[in-house]
Amino acid sequence: MTESFIVYVVGLFVVVAALICFSILTNPKQYVSFKILSGLGIFILGFISYGLFYIFTRFLL
Which residues cross the membrane (predicted)? Predict the structure, then answer.
């Protein structure tokens, strides 16, 4: 794994955790499982975007 990938993953963890904490503080009556699943969805989309960016920079440039 490259250093940029590790930095990206750590940043993604921080952003998703911050979004979940912020949504818990702003709307505590909403289901926590929904918030965790939303966070996982954001995390998966982040991995997909990194993969597409990697493919674009590796093979098309």
Answer: 6-25, 37-56
* pTM of the predicted model as reported, rounded to 2 decimal places: 0.63
Q: Which residues contact 54 (CB under 8 A, 6 or more apart)?
A: none
Q: What pLDDT, in 10s, does the model give residues 5-28? A: 778 888 888 888 888 788 877 877
What is the b/e burial string over 29-46, where b = at least 16 CB atoms within 10 angstroms of the residue's CB? Answer: eeeeeebeeebeeebeeb
Structure tokens at 4: 């940029």
Q: Give start and end residues of each alpha helix (H) in the chain.
A: 3-26, 32-55
Angle, in degrees to the nearest 10, between helices 3-26 and 32-55: 150
